[in-house]
Specification:
This protein is mainly alpha-helical. The protein has 9 helices and no strands.
């Protein structure tokens, strides 16, 4: 390893890490710290990486949030993941607030239908309970879950309720 107090070596290591996958500044700093670099070298390197456009917490958070929303995750779970990945709490909250609610509603409705299809032999109320619980575990708020379940009840044949 290069000298632990060498900002240029920390910069190169940070660049190599970012070439593999985008990172939040705090997460990159932790990885550089585990690699043995000093806090001063890490601070200089992360500042230079940000100045050169390689490190952007807002862009990273928005990308992760959109990808997780498309995967059926709710705002609460997305914000939690962003914080875990080193994004500041305020930025995580603002990022999930900026997600397109219409896109999220369509995704949740489709996810609810797929989940309900797993339980074709259950009575509708029990099926809806399982679907609602699954959506809740994915971080969706109760209001979104209710809307998705209403969509399922509208699709239920008359003799099934």
């Amino acid at each position: 390893m290069a000298a632990p107090d060498d900002p240029a070596a920390a910069y190169q290591r940070g660049l190599a890490i970012l070439a593999g996958a985008a990172q939040a500044r705090a997460a990159l700093a932790r990885r550089l710290g585990r690699a043995g670099f000093t806090p001063e070298a890490i601070a200089t390197a992360t500042e230079q990486l940000a100045d050169h456009g390689y490190l952007d917490d807002a862009a990273f958070a928005a990308s992760v949030a959109r990808r997780r929303q498309r995967g059926g995750r709710g705002a609460a779970l997305i914000a939690q993941e962003l914080r875990r990945r080193g994004v500041a709490s305020e930025l995580a909250a603002a990022t999930v607030q900026d997600l397109d609610p219409d896109a999220g509603a369509g995704i949740v409705g489709a996810l609810a239908a797929r989940l309900a299809a797993r339980y074709p032999d259950l009575p509708p109320r029990e099926r809806w309970g399982r679907v609602g619980a699954a959506l809740s575990r994915r971080g969706h708020p109760a209001s979104v879950i209710r809307t998705a379940l209403r969509g399922l009840t509208e699709e239920t044949p008359a003799g099934e309720s």
